[in-house]
Specification:
Order of helices and strands: EEHHHHHHEHEHHEEHH
Shape: globular
Strand content: 5-15%
Radius of gyration: 20 Å
Strand order of the largest sheet: 1-2
Number of strands: 6
Distance between the termini: 34 Å
Oligomer: single chain
Helix content: 55-70%
Number of domains: 1
Structural class: mainly alpha
Length: 291
């Protein structure tokens, strides 16, 4: 018998009188870790950690709404009544919608505070894959986001009834797509920090590196996922969204993303000047990804 990763027997965690949904708990832990990293990096740049907290409060709320809205708009299989889209604890958060809504909310707060958008986004960008890496473990508790049948030592065990609903009755182990994404995102955190230290990308452009790196991986991941998805011209919709995001972010990095001051002398976090402000970095998200 080959080895495998067992799935949790339940997707709730009992803490005395409290019953917590593991999916929501992992998302919350991811947010906490992401805010901590963003605050640490912002403080190293001479910024006030309270700036990150106030921005995160709005960005996270907008991100959750955007993530759920993206999922609802791109996956119209809800058939459990009008309350179904609100049951976020059951899963179904689209990452591209969350990123887009979160970025725009953050940019709005940043402009109100008069902070350098470029410096803030560079400080906060590695926090995004960190939050995703932790949050994806909520899919493990829900026994979702898995690939095709597998006998690999790291295959994940799935309950028979869930496997049957996925179209694989009698199969017990599958590719752990959630694990692949989590590990990739951990690596992406370190890569983004390294790229930032090298200062090869202009201020505010680190988020384009993140989008390119994340979506390139998701393009492959979508090919092994077996969950139901909307298809366009025979391809999952998230493959198309990944391709759009990859092309847009790569084009931006090629034509606009080169650092003009590798010394980093323009890293003042307290001003939205021409060296890295909203106008120069044009912080419209280069593209979207996958849910």
């Amino acid at each position: 018998m080959f080895a495998s990763i067992p799935s949790p027997s339940t997707n709730v965690i009992e803490l005395g009188p409290l019953t917590l949904r593991a999916y929501g708990l992992m998302i919350a832990l991811g947010v906490i870790a992401g805010v901590w990293l963003a605050q640490k990096r912002w403080e190293e740049r001479g910024g006030d950690v309270d700036d990150v907290a106030s921005i995160a409060m709005w960005a996270v709320a907008a991100g959750l709404i955007g993530a759920r809205l993206y999922n609802v708009l791109t996956d119209w299989r809800f058939n459990e009544g009008w309350l179904a889209p609100f049951k976020i604890w059951e899963g179904g958060l689209g990452i591209p919608g969350g990123i887009a809504a979160g970025v725009f909310a953050a940019l709005w707060i940043i402009r109100r505070k008069g902070i350098s958008a470029g410096a803030m986004f560079d400080a906060a960008t590695p926090a995004l894959p960190l939050a995703q890496a932790i949050g994806r473990w909520g899919n493990w508790f829900n026994q979702e986001l898995f690939g095709g049948p597998s006998n690999l030592p790291w295959a994940v065990e799935i309950k028979p009834e869930i496997a049957a609903r996925a179209g694989y009755p009698g199969v017990s182990t599958f590719q752990p797509a959630f694990l692949y994404e989590s590990l990739w995102n951990v690596g992406l955190v370190f890569f983004l920090i390294w790229i930032d230290k090298k200062r090869v990308v202009r201020r505010g452009g680190l988020i384009a590196v993140y989008i390119l790196g994340y979506l390139t991986f998701r393009l492959w991941l979508e090919t092994i996922r077996i969950d139901q998805a909307t298809h366009i011209l025979g391809l999952r919709i998230n493959i198309w969204m990944s391709l759009i995001g990859i092309i847009a972010s790569a084009a931006w990095l090629f034509f606009r993303g080169r650092a003009t001051d590798p010394s980093g002398s323009d890293d003042d976090p307290g001003s939205d000047d021409a060296g890295g402000g909203v106008e120069e970095i044009e912080m419209t998200p280069p593209g979207d990804g996958a849910s």
